[in-house]
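Trying the structure run again after the queue cleared.
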Amino acid sequence: MQDVSEYCEYPYVTYSYKIIAKDNRGNRSLKSERGLVSGYYIDCGEESEDRIFSEDNSLPMEFSIRNYPNPFNPVTNIVYNLPKDEFVKIKIYDALGKEIMTIVNEFKEAGKYNVSFNGVNFSSGIYYYRIEAGSFIQTKKMLLIK
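Done. Tokens:
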């Protein structure tokens, strides 16, 4: 392989790994053989901290969305489940149906997620949140009380 490090601003790195599988009863497999992966290290930015990992690492069986607390002042958590990888949009609307904010607009892997909505700059009242994930679309109501 040709050394291109003098032309590249990113360092060339090699990582070693072994894999251990664990089933939903806690039983572990034997370690795999050591694997190596090499390439140029490129920082892709900050990691998203909205994903929730379950104790048993199980994936949700169906799409769902909810928020808590409800009513809230001024912050509520919107939790949603994705049984498969999808492009996800979550938007917030006021009582008249006017879009006031987009809080998620990106591709997400299957799993359980949590995103916060801060209503500190909004007046008390009814708001709606709507998720679009593939063919799954659902709208729910939340109440901001100050």
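The two ends are 64 Å apart (CA to CA). Worth checking whether this holds up in the mutant runs.
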